[in-house]
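Sanity check

After download, print the first record. It should look like this:
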Amino acid sequence: MALSKEEKKRLIKLQNILFDSDERELMVTPQFMTDCAKKFIVKHLRAIRTCMTNIKITKDPGTFYSSIPPMLEHLDELIKIEPYYDMSRPTPTQFKKDFLANKEIYASNMIKRYVHEMKQHIPAPGSLQFPPVRKYFQDSFDALMGYAEEMSTEERNLVDVFYSGIFKRNYKDPVPDALTDTTVYDEIIDVPEETGEQEINIPKEI
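Expected structure tokens:
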């Protein structure tokens, strides 16, 4: 069955995206083109699922923030073929829009998981004035704030709320000398439950 002019134009554009070419004619069969498109979509969707799993469950800020750029890159690859291939709903464009709208909530939830994990190492009340314990918490916050450039203002403020709950000062305040700091850190912060981010459905594999 002969291809319509519009269908042929669509397949040529799809072909040039998938094969990074600049052909004016369709160089493969329509069935081969369809099979290649399916493999392309499946490859990127699997990578997106892995990144989203990390984003939603990790307690490690490095894993969280390093998962976002590749996920967006894989989405952008799928977005390129959206006009030329019927994608399942939500489309990659809609998925990206929904994710970016919820990014700060995902980040806040990761920060809460991180601080909750820190709390598991809290010793008996009154022990936090000891230098080794203070150092553990300071080092933990320093590790988290190592990603400050990746954070929004709201995320940095949330970290500061947790920090001041332990140290009774802001993160940017000078750190007292461990031998002369006599503050007793008895009132340990309570970590609120995670905020429910909007459920984002990942496009289905074909």
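If your output differs, re-run the checksum step. Summary of this record's structure: The chain has a mean pLDDT of 84.
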